[in-house]
Amino acid sequence: MNNSVSDEKLCAFIDGELDSAERQDLLRRLQIDNELRDRVCAFRITDDMVRTAYAEVPQSPTRTARLGKAAKMAYRALAAAALLAVGLSSGWALRGQAVDDAAPGGLLGFLPKNVQPVHLAEHADARKVLLHIDSSDPVRVRRALEYAKAFLKAAHTTGVTVHLEIVANFKGIDVLRTGMTPYSDRFRALARRGAGVELVACGNAVARLRSMGENPDLVPGVRVAPSAVAEIVTRLEDGWTYIKV
Amino acid sequence: MILGLCGSDRLAFHALRPRLHRLAFAWCHDAALADDLVQETLTKALARAGQLKAEGAIASWLIAILNNCWRDHLRRVRDHLCLDEAADWPDLHAQGPEDTCSQGQLATSVRKAIARLPLGQREVLTLVDLEESSYAEAAAALGIPVGTVMSRLARARAALREQLLQGSAERPPAPLRRVK
User: Fold this and answer.
1) Which residues in chain A have Cβ-Cβ distances shorter than 8 Å to B129?
2) Residue whose C-alpha is closest to residue A129's, from A102, A97, A166
3) Which chain B residues touch A54 with a CB distance below 8 Å?
4) Ranges A23-37, A59-73, B125-139, B165-179, most confident
5) A118: how many CB neighbours lie within 10 A of its CB?
6) CB contact under 8 A, B106 and A7
7) Do residues B105 and A72 lie in contact, with contact meaning Cβ atoms separated by under 8 Å?
8) Residue A133: helix, strand or coil by DSSP?
């Protein structure tokens, strides 16, 4: 554990440039070393930011005046990618990004004071909540379940129709895989409990598992999105409220 | 000679134009200059089409030419600097207020952070992140060893992490374990 991993090696890991032995070795270390995982996460986030910052580039000074919807979308996508940084376990957070206030109607009253829900659209809707989990740490998994239940209960008591989506990526994907954690049945039960609850797995995480020769074996009813970031961006665009557990 | 290019290669040229422009823009952060560089690159590429041997290598070949055009340009305007270490060139205000505004502060701060990187790091980072080049492709396009690609990339990403994400300053040196 004290045997530190260089930034070069982490980069090579992210870019798929390690040979399979080195890759397996690093994957094993990532499972037990939170700090290492945070470093990988931070690099992935900066990479996302770089890609998004150049998703739309001006063609020439004379034409830049009419940057339309596409540029705005790119900016929003960037903002959303940046928001993913907010909840990282070691406290990585985006510099200078403001977060909106809590939702009306008491639906989110169950959230502890230090947890900030995030909105991106002008008209945020507290009835549509996306829970994002990127870890299989039991504390966080139980928190996700607890939030989900509290939200559905609040909806039930107030008689409001709600939508809840639980998006899992990185190690969080394990909670949606059969038999990987003690929790997959409970997530499945949530999804079966009623309309409006959906479980979503990150397509990148699924592809990563397959590339390592593992069978993802997702529990029935899980939808695979192209990527967790894309899913979160789309939902935020649609006025959903984002909560990172 | 233009005839040296077969039809599919010419199609590839057109398809690659926006990618080259984006890459050039990420290097120089000046839309007009990026346009000029891409135009110059494509003109040179057409003239030297005979050099292109391996099929499917058009992208790396064009990027190598773009890199030469860019460095020629830099040499013309600032011949006294070691190019790989050149940073902060030119500044982002050249983009004009509309662009800065519509792209948002975040895009601007990311681009600023990238503009602050030494040129050698900026090129490697943009090739790997924007073009999704492999390390070998990036090394070939830039004419540097793979080891240099790796070290520049790691330094570039670490610099962006420091500038764009909080938490880095508090992080203990890697060999230390976090207590709590």
Assistant:
1) 47, 50-51
2) A166
3) 22, 25-26, 111, 126, 130
4) B125-139
5) 23
6) no
7) no
8) strand
Q: Measured between CB atoms, does B16 come within 8 Å of chain A? A: no
Contact B170 A91 (CB under 8 A): yes
Check CB contact under 8 Å for B160 and A49: yes
The Cα of A223 is separated from the nearest Cα of chain B by a number of Å equal to 27
Q: Do B32 and A47 touch (CB under 8 A)?
A: no
Among candidates B128, B84, B135, B85, which has minimal Cα distance to A50?
B128
Express each pLDDT in B65-91 by its tens digit.
999 999 988 888 765 556 666 555 444
To the nearest whole Å, the CA of B37 is away from the closest chain A CA by 12
Tell me how many degrees the CA angle B152-B154-B158 measures, rounded to the nearest 5: 115
Share of chain A above pLDDT 70, in %: 74
Query: A46 and B153: CB-CB below 8 Å?
Result: no
Residues of A in contact with B178 (CB under 8 A): 34-35, 90
Q: Is the pTM of this model over 0.80?
A: no
CB environment B35-46: b (16+ within 10 A), e (fewer): bbbbebbbeebb
Q: How far is A214 from chain B (nearest CA, A)?
A: 24
Provide the edge-to-edge strand list for the sheet that holds A223-225: A223-225, A197-202, A163-168, A128-133, A241-244
Integer Cα distance of A14 and A30 in angstroms:
12
Tell me what percent of the residues of chain A surpass a pLDDT of 90.
30
- Flag whether residue A73 sits within 8 Å of chain B, measured between CB atoms: no
> A55: helix, coil or strand?
coil
The residue-averaged pLDDT of A26-46 equals 88
Q: Which of A4, A11, A17 sits opposite B134 (nearest CB)?
A: A17
C-beta atoms of B105 and A92 within 8 A: no
User: Using CB atoms within 10 A of its CB, is residue B8 exposed (0-12), middle (13-18) or buried (19+)?
Assistant: exposed
Question: At residue A119, what is the residue type?
Answer: H
**Which segments of A88-202 does DSSP mark as H helices, in order?**
138-158, 184-193
The predicted pLDDT at position B96 comes to 45
Res A66 pLDDT > 90: no
Over residues B13-62, the pLDDT tens digits come to 777 888 999 999 999 998 888 988 998 888 888 777 666 666 557 788 88
